[in-house]
Amino acid sequence: MSASLYQRQPPITLADPYPESPKSTINSQKPGSFLTRNTLLALFSLLIILGFLFPYSSTSIPSSLLFSNSKIFESKWRAYTLSEAVAFVGTNGTVIVCAVSQPYLPFLNNWLISIVKQKHHEKVLVIAEDYYTLFKVNERWPGHAVLVPPAPDAQVAHKFGSQGFFNFTSRRPRHLLQILELGYNVMYNDVDMVWLADPFPYLQGKHDVYFMDDMTAVKPLNHSNALPPPGKKGRPYICSCMIYMRPTKGAKLVMKKWIEELQDQPWSKAKKANDQPGFNWALQKTAEQVDLYLLPQAAFPTGGLYFKNRTWVKETKGMQVIIHNNYIIGFEKKIKRFKEYDLWLVDEHASESPLGNIS
Fold first, then answer.
1. CATH number of the CATH domain containing 158
2. Which of 75, 228, 301, 330 could bridge across to 305 with cysteines, CB 3.0–4.6 Å?
3. What is residue 192's three-state secondary structure?
4. How far is Cα 225 from Cα 323, in angstroms, rounded to an integer?
């Protein structure tokens, strides 16, 4: 795979901080100008000599020369908007979205490697939830990460069950709704997932919202694609980890209802809410107005089924498309499980990722 695929540059929207006017260009070419070719070569040689003579001195080269590039780099990506990022990656009308904070970078890379194998990586947009992730991803893969301010607290956003984690995940429907409003198809994935095959053949038809079950009970291979009936808590158990939507009124309605549900059920110490119940309530309350589609369990199993029921895995071998490493908590535990099932790709296939070895 050629490196040029990974170095495609997005439109630069910031003005050049040192614009060169036609007048200044003409003046710089006059024979008597101070910035002649010989002068520039002399200055360049002087900088090299200073570097050899004072390699460890912070005063040998002006700090403005050392850090101006990094400041321009950071200001460029801070100003990068979601609409600009979507236009850059969504050239075929579809965007694959994930939301990532720094602790999840190894999982991002593992997930991304699996997408590269299916040749859909150029559609990927990383919604960075901290500035480290924003700058790190765009340094390696320009244009494929964007941060929608304000950034959540990076120290707590990854702790499942915390208010920071809720604040992190509750932003998701707003991002997805904005992408739908821009007119794009959007697929959302959690990054503790791995693609074993191309999911897009399963996303055919004209349904508004596609999703996968989060129940571990085995369904028949020809199970219904309708929204499952409510469980004991009065709502279905659909996973918010994998969602595909078309830019229809129905899909937008589900996202708006999801946002309302999250506002009505805020996080508290007594009730440590997360975003998935809100998604399920939104599906149930809009089911009569929206064309919903449950993806086949054999192709999109929950982690509680794939990693727990070896008999079922053997019976459905070759049918799995996307595996979700849920029903387990903790980075190390998730990585260990992935390794046990030969799904941790980072160690041997990092060179296939546009991010390389990133952490």
1. 3.90.550.10
2. 301
3. coil
4. 19
